[in-house]
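Could you join me in thinking about how sequence relates to backbone shape in a protein? To get us started, please write out a protein record for me. Would you write everything just below, so we can both look at the same thing?
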Amino acid sequence: MGSRVSREEFEWVYTDQPHAARRKEILAKYPEIKSLMKPDRNLIWIITMMLLVQLASFYLVKDLDWKWVIFWSYVFGSCLNHSMTLAIHEISHNFPFGHHKALWNRWFGIFANLSLGVPYSVSFKRYHMDHHRYLGADGIDVDIPTDFEGWFFCTTFRKLVWVILQPLFYAFRPLFINPKPITNLEIINTVIQITFDIIIYYVFGVKSLVYMLLATLLGLGLHPISGHFIAEHYMFLKGHETYSYYGPLNLLTFNVGYHNEHHDFPNIPGKNLPLVRKIASEYYDNLPNYNSWIKVLYDFVMDDTISPYSRMKRPPKGNEVLE
């Protein structure tokens, strides 16, 4: 079963997150970085093509044996659906249509959401903005695991289970940490998604529906791309709360691996984050980083000193303006 981790509580910090200070310093030295703060219109066509490819896969799997439905949902569908969640991450920052057309981005997010099988896009945007503004804030940033997760998932086997079930924890954790009133857009997102799922069932059959849902569940669980969930903010090195990944899977994930760069400049689309690192290389090259998300997953599960507790928490200041 593995031994219990020695950590018994979160790492509490009482200072501001480092990203705002570094952003100010970098912009003072390299004002040309402001030119990278612009919409990425290519996302519209890339995301549309991704959805069409997944629709084609629904057709291709509808008559396969169940073993092949499961196989392809993990080998292919999971990659596409996890990539789509990160496309929705780009949309949540208003990158496809720009900030002046925020509602267009919300509708486009609902459109991109279709291939996932579960309503996600609108709610994700609300909570993700809190994550950027109040990184690690107790009771606000739902990216922080609950006390129960840190206490219970503390052995090698239990941490493996936790990794497998990550999509469920990400789905239900907000209800316990920071519940928000349901908005009309969230209702619309849910109704459109359920309607789409019913259409998939009647047009292609139950195997295509299961393929779609399994692709999301498996793709966000024990999967190479899911290493980014842990790589981004879990403290493998004490005192460092955000880490970048510079490996090849950035090609499938809209450069979400450039995570220090992303938190420093959340208004720069993923395609331009490598340019941020190139321009301000002295600020990033010496920061701890990864080149393998698979190794991150392995180390998280096998290292007895790392657990869901391995996060920085900040006490809320009381003046937060939530999304």
Notes: The two ends are 41 Å apart (CA to CA). The CA atoms of residues 123 and 221 lie 20 Å apart.
